Amino acid sequence: MPADAFDQTKAALLTLGGQRVWSLMVTLFGDLAQAEGSSIDGPVLSAVMTEMDVRPEAVRVALHRLRNDGWIVSQKQGRTRRHALTPTSRQETLHASARIYASPTAQELGWQLLMLEDTATAHREEMAEQGFVPLLPRVYLGSSLSKPPKNALVLTGGNAPGWLREQIGAQMLEAEYSAMLPVLQLAKSSLNSGVLDALQTTVLRCLIVHNWRRIVLRHPTLPRTLLPNDWPGHSCHILVDTLLNRFLQPLPDEILPS
Amino acid sequence: MPADAFDQTKAALLTLGGQRVWSLMVTLFGDLAQAEGSSIDGPVLSAVMTEMDVRPEAVRVALHRLRNDGWIVSQKQGRTRRHALTPTSRQETLHASARIYASPTAQELGWQLLMLEDTATAHREEMAEQGFVPLLPRVYLGSSLSKPPKNALVLTGGNAPGWLREQIGAQMLEAEYSAMLPVLQLAKSSLNSGVLDALQTTVLRCLIVHNWRRIVLRHPTLPRTLLPNDWPGHSCHILVDTLLNRFLQPLPDEILPS
């Protein structure tokens, strides 16, 4: 491995943008300390954030904000502070994890098309929450798991023509996935397992999960039959899964040399 | 039967409107002389049209027009003229008859929803010819027999919510059927079989078929599951079928007393 392969990958992941410190921390807690009773010590948090080029005062501000928002609790234990998710944020994290860490080879779902009685019946945001993407005014597509509003016309999907798959693909953050794809490819080809230390592994995972979740949580899950064969979201999903399986997360206590 | 029951029914049918003379004749030839080799003698045609309050000169003008259009041919046979459909108009008449004389108890079809790639892919008229009614821009409904254009998204219909059935019903000439319904009800309740002579029977059938075909041929056939339970087109269909079976058409030669 070239000496700078990790730094190169890290820099590429950091330039994808949207790296707000508090948001990065949400990702970190979700990836590293999601389990009940799990926490991150202050020095570990500092080390990880420093490795991601975040200054200590920005960490303090973000910690303050996350505590105020009820996302984390901090407790003194001897001379160190331990930070942990709250019961509420742990629930939200678990919920999001089902999508963030989903296997790209999961059983394919069917799809459905629905038409609302009128445009006032439901808002786009509510429909997105139920797993539907807009196709036409009043017309939405979703996987067979999406829950249609009462009284909607619901039809079971079958074969989807190419133009429909292209149209849906373009709505599904194609540009964002296309920007992320080469960075993941770089990570996969330049970083071998076993060569990163626990801190580097933590940082790499955090940046991958962070960029991934910022895209994947912004659109409902649709079955592949509704998306173009070359939709970059598929390739990203496979690479994210490969990398997270290659670089398994350490326990929070193993990150700093004792 | 009250002495004026026939006249009352006839007047009601005539006031439904749209009784252009040439169009009435198209109906008459379709109902009375559709069979290969069948024709209507001049005196019979005159008697029927007179009974429908059409003046002789209007009959002459209409005959002239229909001959010019290639719809009928007229041949002298001895001292009378015989009028008959041409091979082309017989074909068109047969085609339309499949819908005009369809049984209201025919096997129910399924339905399909289709979405076109863009609004330019097909015109409403072409879609209507293929048996589709518009639902939204780019979105159409049709029976399972309708032929979707190549490359359309096609979904098999299932349960249709009430609002959809109402919306489709309103598009399916509900007002026209509602206007025709009481006239057919009057005919059914006031006219018993066996009491009309051959000329009256011919006129009654001609006016019923004429008003019926003017509505039914203007929209594609959709299965009942897509239409409101109280859609007046259903009731009209049943009454038209009942009346046409009660008053069977005489042979053209039986209409005038010899």
Distance between the termini of chain A: 26 Å
Q: What is the fold-level CATH name, i.e. the topology of the largest domain in chain A? A: Arc Repressor Mutant, subunit A
Structural class of chain A: alpha+beta
Estimate the strand proportion of chain A.
Answer: 5-15%
Number of domains of chain A: 2
| CATH architecture identity of the largest domain in chain A | Orthogonal Bundle
Q: How would you describe the oligomerization state of the chains in this entry?
A: homodimer
Q: How does the major sheet of chain A shape up?
A: 4 strands, antiparallel
Counted by DSSP, the helix tally of chain A is: 10
CATH class of the largest domain in chain A: Mainly Alpha
Query: Which spans of chain A of ≥5 residues are poorly predicted at pLDDT below 50?
Result: none
Radius of gyration of chain A: 20 Å
Name the strands of the widest sheet of chain A in spatial order: 5-6-4-7
Order of helices and strands of chain A: HHEHHEEHEHEEEHHHH
Q: Which percent range fits the helix content of chain A?
A: 40-55%
Q: What name goes with the CATH superfamily of the largest domain in chain A?
A: Winged helix-like DNA-binding domain superfamily/Winged helix DNA-binding domain
| Biggest interface | A-B, 21 and 21 residues
Strands of chain A, total number: 7
Mean pLDDT of chain A: 92
Mass-distribution shape of chain A: globular
Descriptive report:
Two copies of one chain form a homodimer. Chain A is of the alpha+beta class. The first copy, chain A, folds into two domains: 5-104 and 172-254, Winged helix-like DNA-binding domain superfamily/Winged helix DNA-binding domain (Arc Repressor Mutant, subunit A), CATH 1.10.10; 112-157. Chain A is 49% helix and 13% strand. In chain A, the strands form two sheets. Chain A has a four-stranded antiparallel β-sheet with strand order 5-6-4-7. A three-stranded antiparallel β-sheet of chain A has the order 1-3-2. In chain A, strand 5 (132-136) and strand 6 form a beta hairpin. In chain A, helix 2 (21-32) packs across helix 4 (56-68) and helix 2 (21-32) packs across helix 9 (198-216). The first copy, chain A, starts with a helix and ends in a 12-residue tail after the last helix. The mean pLDDT of chain A is 92. At the A-B interface, strand 7 of A face strand 7 of B.
